[in-house]
Specification:
With 587 residues, the protein is an alpha+beta fold. Helix content is 25%, strand content 27%. β31 (558-563) and β32 (572-575) form a beta hairpin. The longest helix has 20 residues, at 45-64.
């Protein structure tokens, strides 16, 4: 047990001027965190207690999978990235420091490279695999615009784990560990008392194949989740598939709605402005995005065509065309013959080495407007058969494919007749099947089945400090935080109405000792403050149970018991000899 007067809980009535999200506002006002610099925060005693509890839950579940804990350096020699080129992939997000001798080091955002280097130098036989290692440690990312307190900062606490295998399937394979980590992550967030959704996800700069995100459901979440209400399928926007969409009248069929009419559209920066000028709604315009294929391939360029009010999904484009792609550099694309900003599907006929991917929503007939393939011009009455021609039937040049971001109301990919629904979430965990990306790049190989083979890897991260903030985003009201019991800094707050009265102090001590013996964490508010101030602070810091010791309750042989989550309910008097059992059962 602790006394309020002997710890540091600097509650305030006003939030920092830059605080916008509920967690940033409440963690700051309740004295959990204090801003030291842009995206850099002090974790004060209350926050540190919650963070330790989250970390302990994570450690217990990681240990249950057979993973072993270690601790790797924060400063990573920049040479570690020579093979993976992730310093290039991360770009400005990667913090770099230079020592007095001119040597450059990175402050680790994640630790794939050092863990791969460690295993390469420490293990010499496949018989020592599978192996899973993890750490709970501070990580760094140079966010361009830190915001939302602990949700997007530059220094944060993270658990990262890595597994090593010689096979994907079977006992000891990557899939076995991946499934174990999936279960462990589900256990972690259940034990933390969080309502969460597991979604299929893209790997992003980490790399690899399959991945899942663990998202805390919160109206204030910055990520959009799409769910099928029938099958339970869920995915983030970058990954979500769309069910079968019938093309009205057949793909690329339909008669022209008129002669191709060119319209001069100067100084119009976006598709909405173009549409207004041409008196065409965005859903009747074609948006054509140019991608460049990375590496050697017969296809040099990929065009993705979607409706003007839809967004192209780069991950889907990559998956459909079977190549790594990137948004085409404007200078190179113009040199190849693309009128960037005014590209139409007709470019598949005028630029060599082009594969065009057409979303089903735009493959039907009817009126269409699109770019004119020359600067400051668009055309009306585009028609697929007339204006693209014979390449429409050749999959080497044109493919009908899902290449846009999914939206609420789209057909579910897992249940016929069902429609996708959207929700908001905060990513708190992410698991990846890395495959051999890092072992190939860093020459982590083992002699296995009479040949040298790259070790197969998995990667598994949990944002510990982010989980604390996400819990507040999900669990709060207008009065303050409402902690789930498992990660609350204290389970019980004992509020002394008269801290200078011996009988009150003695009762608080006896109750606190009994609660502590029962395994509950107790904070005694012994400050010389008005009752109203204490009650407001109690609601603000969000301890699950408040016990109030006052003359009236003591005269009845008890204390006032109140649950934080039942803010509108009146407190009830609980007999002194029943307080411990009442608190334990409530928690």
């Amino acid at each position: 047990m602790h006394r309020w007067s002997q710890t540091l809980i600097p509650t305030t009535r006003e939030a920092p001027a830059d605080a916008e999200s509920p967690s940033h506002i409440l963690l700051s006002r309740a004295g959990y965190i204090r801003k030291l610099g842009s995206g850099i925060y002090d974790y004060l005693p209350l926050a540190w207690r919650s963070l330790r509890k989250i970390s302990q839950i994570v450690r217990e579940e990681m240990d249950a999978t057979g993973a072993a804990e270690l601790c790797l350096p924060v400063m990573l020699p920049i040479e570690l990235y020579a093979g993976t080129k992730r310093d290039v992939d991360y770009g400005d997000l990667l913090f770099k420091v230079t020592d007095r001798k001119g040597a450059v080091a990175a402050l680790g955002p994640t630790h794939e490279e050092p863990i791969t280097e460690l295993v390469r130098g420490s293990i010499n036989s496949y018989k020592q695999l599978p192996l899973s290692l993890y750490q709970v440690q501070t990580k760094f990312r140079d966010e361009a615009r830190p915001r939302s307190g602990l949700l997007r900062c530059r220094e944060f606490i993270m658990k990262d784990a890595y597994s090593f295998h010689m096979e994907v399937e079977g006992a000891g394979g990557l899939n076995e560990t991946y499934d174990a980590m999936y279960r462990a992550y589900s256990n972690v967030f259940k034990r933390c008392g969080l309502d969460f959704t597991v979604v299929e996800a893209e790997a992003g700069p980490i790399g690899g194949s399959a991945s899942h995100e663990f998202m805390v459901n919160a109206a204030s979440g910055e990520d959009t989740i799409l769910k099928c209400p029938v099958s339970g399928y869920a995915a983030n926007v970058e990954k979500c598939e769309i069910g079968v969409r019938e093309v009205s009248g057949g793909a690329f069929d339909g008669s022209p709605t008129g002669e191709l009419a060119e319209v001069h559209t100067p100084n119009l920066p976006g598709i909405d402005e173009v549409g207004k000028f041409m008196k065409v709604k965005p859903d009747r315009m074609l948006k054509t995005i140019v991608f460049r294929v990375v590496g050697d391939a017969p296809t040099k360029w990929v065009l993705a065509v979607v409706r003007g009010d839809h967004d192209v999904n780069e991950g889907k484009v990559k998956s459909v065309c079977g190549h790594q792609v990137e948004l085409a550099p404007e200078k190179e694309a113009r040199a190849a013959g693309f009128a960037i900003g005014y590209v139409s599907p007709r470019a598949v006929n005028s630029v060599p080495g082009v594969l065009m991917l057409v979303d089903p929503d735009v493959a039907g007939g009817g009126f269409w407007a699109t770019g004119a393939d020359k600067p400051d011009h668009h055309v009306k009455h585009f028609n697929w058969k007339r204006d693209v021609g014979e390449k429409l039937g050749d999959p080497r040049y044109v493919k009908l494919a899902d290449v846009r971001n999914a939206l609420a109301g789209d057909p579910s990919p897992r249940a016929a007749g069902a429609r996708l629904e959207t929700g908001r979430g905060i990513e708190v965990g992410h698991i990846f099947k890395l495959g051999t990306k890092y072992s190939d790049a860093m020459d982590l190989k083992m002699l296995y089945k009479e040949q040298q083979r790259s070790v197969i890897m998995g990667c598994y991260g949990i944002g510990v400090s982010r989980t604390m903030a996400a819990s507040v985003e999900q669990n709060h009201d207008e009065n303050g935080i409402i902690w789930p019991a498992a990660i609350a800094p204290y389970h019980v707050l004992i509020t002394l109405m008269k801290p200078d009265q011996a009988s009150h102090v003695e009762a608080a001590g006896r109750i606190a000792a009994s609660l502590s013996e029962a395994g509950l964490d107790v904070l005694i508010d012994d400050r010389d403050e008005r009752p109203g101030v204490k009650f407001k602070d109690a609601d603000l810091i969000g301890v699950p149970i408040r016990l109030t010791i006052g003359d009236k309750a003591l005269a009845e042989g008890g204390v006032e018991f109140k649950l934080r989550r039942d803010v509108a309910a009146k407190g009830e008097v609980v007999r002194l000899d029943q307080v411990t059992s009442r608190c334990s059962s409530a928690l």
